[in-house]
Every structure is written in structure tokens, then in C-alpha cells.
Amino acid sequence: MSAAYTIGIDIGGTKVAGGVVDAEGAIIARARVDTPHRSTSPEIVEGAIVGVVQDLLGQVDSEQVGAVGIGAAGFVDADRATVVFAPHLSWRHEPLREALHDRIGLPITVDNDANAAVWAEWRFGAGRGESHLIMVNLGTGIGGGIVIAGRVERGRHGLAGEFGHMQVVPDGLRCECGNRGCWEQYSSGNALVREAGALLAANSPVADDLRLRLGDDPSLLTGPLITEAARAGDRTAVELLTEVGQWLGVGIANLAAAFDPGMFVIGGGVSAAGELLLGPARETYRRQLTGRGYRPEASIVAAGLGNDAGVIGAADLARSGG
């Protein structure tokens, strides 16, 4: 594509964020709008997308913008045009590209937000130079993406990378997907907060530091607060992050057995815990790895682009076709 810029749109459950991105992955203009949570209709979100794109086009020379890439939190069909299912939005087999084409007037590609993020990390972030890359995003759940030999691996139906729903504990905790024992029930932001909340609810003395931080308001309990406590030396918070990290290592070892990547990039909000999370993950990965001692080990590193990965990746996929 000869145009200087493309636009990337990152759609979550409560926001539509966008940026104008150049060929080097730099964001030169930004826009964002909030959307109502869960109850959002397709028309409301589509209107928000159009509004963000128009805002961005007004910040630059619109003649220099060649395409729009959209990263959506949900299942995106292999045609890269239809959102099959978005758990936090009202999209069910939504023909998003068709719905937006006439209103935006630029070529549009649609992809899963985790695919956009892994592409950004491979092109411009922590995964540069790695031919076989897997990204694991730890947020409220677990998402993921795969790049092999310079292409995003989307699977036959476009649904690859739903790592969070691998079963790691037979008959384990019930997951929102309907199954039991899914990985994200043990290694995610939700898992971290759930375990801390259980200690607080039991009035455990080991949770006293967390209780003081909350000021007797349990609704304030979040992953970032637990991470902050761990960094300040609270042993219980460190233990909670260690447990999440150990489960992260279990799942990564399973992925290594299936894909044999050279690198795992760990992103998402929980990854802000850094080595408090990644250290235990590496240790468990080495213990669990099939053929340990007789095969190369993939490196496990923190993502480099933070919350910008979705916007940058969606824009670059629109440019390159990835």
C-alpha cells in the first residue's frame, strides 16, 4: 500500500480506541469514545467506530490514509469481515465490514484483537525477528495469537488462539464458556481477584494488608491493587501472583508441546506485574515442558507495546494483509 498512513481501531467491551499509524508502527493521532457495557447494540458500536474514524481523518491529511483495520474482542470469521460472536457486545454473525464500508469509504479489514496485538508485537515490539511467535494476553480472561513465518495463524475458521479455554484441570472451576477447568480460570485477572477475594471473605489474617488498602470496601479489589501490594512487599499478594504465574507456566508448556515456538510474549493487564508473574511462569514452564533437557526452550518475555498493540496491529494488518 502506497498511502502513508492506515487507521487502527481497537474495540473492547466499553470503548472504541483508534489511531492513525505510519509504516513504522508509530501512532501519530489518537481518538477514543466510551460505549455502554455489554448491552451495546451493533448500531451503537458501529456508529462509535465511524465517529472515531472521522475524528482521526480530521487530525491528518485524509488523502494520506489508505485503509482501516479493526480489531474486535470476539470470534472473527476467516473472511475477516464478519464478527461471529463478541461476548461483551451484541454482535452475533455481524457483517461488520459490509456495515461500515459505505459509511467510512475506505478499504476495511476486520480481525480478532489478539491477532492484531500479536502482529504488532512481531512487527514492532518484543517479538521482532522471531519466526515462530505466540502471544498470551492475560486480562480478565486469556486471549492469544500466533505468528508463524510472517503470517498470523487464524485456523481453518478464523478462530485459532482461544488459549484461555484449554482445559488444564479436569472437572475444575466452571468457566463462563460453559466448560470446567479452563486455563483462564486459574491464570488471569479474574483468577487473581477471585483468590484474593476468597481470602478477604474468609477474614484471613494473611489478607490484612489488602484489607487495609481497600479501606473495608471490597469493590475496590482489582488486579492492579494486588500487584501494587506485591511490589510493596505484601507476602500474600506475592503468593497470589506466584500462583497465577505458575498456572501461566503450565499453559505455556502445553502450547510449546503443540506449536514449538521460539518465543512467548506475555501481554494484557496482568503482565504489568512483570517478574512477579513471569519468574514463576518460567520456572513452572521448565518443569512441565515435554522433553525438557533435550530440546530448546522458548523464551518468555513481556510485551513491549502495552495498550497500543491492538491499534498498531489492526492498522498494520490493514496495510500489509498479514
List keywords for this structure.
322 residues, alpha/beta, Nucleotidyltransferase, domain 5, 2 domains, 5-stranded mixed beta sheet, 9 helices, 37% helix, 21% strand
Could you explain the architecture of this structure?
The protein has 322 residues and is an alpha/beta fold. The chain contains nine helices and 13 strands. It has helices at 42-59, 96-104, 113-124, 189-201, 208-214, 223-231, 235-259, 275-288, 309-320; strands at 5-11, 15-22, 27-34, 65-72, 75-76, 83-85, 92-94, 108-112, 132-138, 142-148, 151-152, 263-267, 299-302. It is 37% helix and 21% strand. The strands form three sheets. The protein has a five-stranded mixed beta sheet with strand order 3-2-1-4-8. Strands 11-10-9-12-13 form a five-stranded mixed beta sheet, with helices on both faces. Helix 1 (42-59) runs parallel beside helix 2 (96-104), helix 6 (223-231) crosses helix 7 (235-259) and helix 7 (235-259) crosses helix 8. 47% of the residues are buried.
